[in-house]
Amino acid sequence: MTRALAPLLVVLALAGCGGSSDDDAAPAAGSGTCQAVEARAPRADGGATKPTVLLAPDVTYRLVFSTNCGDFTVTLDQKTAPKTSASLVALAQNGFYDGTIVHRIVPGFVIQGGDPTGTGTGGPGYQTIDVPPPDARYTHGVVAMAKAGADPPGAAGSQFFVVTGADVGLPAEYAIVGEVTDGLEVVDLIGELGDPATEQPTEPVVVGSVTVSEG
Hints:
The structure is a single chain. By secondary structure, this protein is mainly beta. The chain has one domain: Cyclophilin (Beta Barrel). Helix content is 9%, strand content 25%. The chain has 2 helices and 10 strands; from the N terminus they run E-E-H-E-E-E-E-E-E-E-H-E. The protein has helices at 82-93, 184-191; strands at 61-67, 70-76, 100-106, 110-113, 128-129, 142-145, 155-156, 160-163, 176-182, 206-214. An 8-stranded antiparallel barrel has the order 1-2-9-6-8-4-3-10. Strands 5-7 form a two-stranded antiparallel ribbon. It is globular. The relative contact order is 0.27.
């Protein structure tokens, strides 16, 4: 994929990333600080396999994002985005997100990640579509999927964004996959680490791993 994926269709260029050791530890939960790390080297675009089976409808699935700024948990909304939820779980279980970066941070708006290339143009090599309801609102803690301007409403790859503003007023075009149910303070901390002029991080924010829990 060579398209830029962003909620407001902003094309971002990311500077080259250096390597990092595998022993980067996340800070204690709620510490209010980020551990200083180097951004991981970018990976190749695509390469993932689109899941063909939906998740069990009577099970609640959660994604736990472990970052150098702390952990946050996203509870998936299968009713609103069943195909995208299944895709996110499959990607997480296959380690697709491990070592990726939060490549876009717009203070008071969103944080965005999930691109293996770290440039804002990458993805898993496939798309899902879950059209959001007409009355969808993108409020603080809502997690939705980024897409290119030419993509249809609800199109999604692997890039996600978390809303850090109270209500950012986006049109109902971005698949809503859930909300942050634990660690919203970590998301807000990350949301302060962006340059409003460039929308790029002022320091590396690395997703060490994304694990799946069921309940």
